[in-house]
Amino acid sequence: MKNVVLLGSTGSIGTSTLKVVEDMPDRLRLIGLAAGGNVDLLVEQTARHQPGTVSIQDPSRVEALQQRVGSSVKVLSGTDGLVALATLPEADIVLIAIVGTAGLLPALAAIRAGKDIAVASKEILVMAGELVMNEAKAHGVRVLAVDSEHSAIFQCLEDKPAESVRNLWLTASGGPFRDRTKWPREALAQVTLEQALKHPSWVMGRKITIDSATLFNKGLEMIEARWLFGIEMSRVQVVVHPQSVVHSMVEYVDGSIIAQLSTPDMCLPIQIALCHPERVKSDRVKTNFAAIGSLTFEEPDTERFPALLLARQAGELGGTLPAVFNAANEIAVERFCRREIGFLDITRHVRAVMEAHQRIDQPSLDQILAADQWARTVSV
User: Fold this and answer.
1) In angstroms, rounded to a whole number, what is the distance separating the alpha carbons of residues 359 and 322?
2) Residue 6: which H helix or E strand, with range?
């Protein structure tokens, strides 16, 4: 039995995690839940899973939440609440599914408390990958991937050394605008929010869905893979695979390529992370190759989707630049969702902020957080 803390329980990854836990009541127990603003769903989850501690983002809502969950449940709030949950003495693993940068401090706190962490929040490793992985090594804990792409690479690598790898291949669906004929670059300037939110393969939250449409999501994954697997950016590649059945691949120095395949379902990588190192039976994911019919692959179109080039630049130069890349994108996506800027303006904004930034090499946590804050407030 593993005791699990789930940060971000009401989002798409969080609700999928609860399904996995419900599938395996003899193996997984939820002891802590944290949510942003969806109090009603958090109350429902608390009643169903009976965690001892929960946390909500807004401190002003603690009293009302306490009344609804009862006195047997401890209610916390804010960043302090996340850190307290992440360091619960009885926790075995902390799954971090908080959108944005809010997961970084609890991730570091969990690592320093000797907890394995499962990372669904790309920003943690994008912003502070070197720092996080060094801390994990120092404290003897594992950083496990929840993204389907990184979970696939993790499964294909099986702890083989970095020098045995020629390339890591991240697969990308290509998003809703993959078809160059239907969506030439000039047409992308007219993309609406509603069109960008129609992902062809996955049902996800708003931010990650927009990032998938611009391919910023794949750029963030490139940087994440660089640190998670100790592979420099020059060996992290992207290939477009519209069917989203091959979740990613490892190309070895002898020319062999090992891939992980399955019908798209986030429950599988979540289960793999929570149950590691065991393979546990589940009937939730079943793959019918005859029904799928064919698997196709394409080069990514960096002319229409230059986010991949910006990500490679950020990952290669390193320092505080990845944090700036991430924060500038978050702000640009927020503005697009408020219909203040156009679809192509997202990339323009991020490029301009990156160009204006004075990069710091080997930054401290405070310097990373300062760069993040600067990128959120700078006017370009």
Assistant:
1) 10
2) strand 2-7
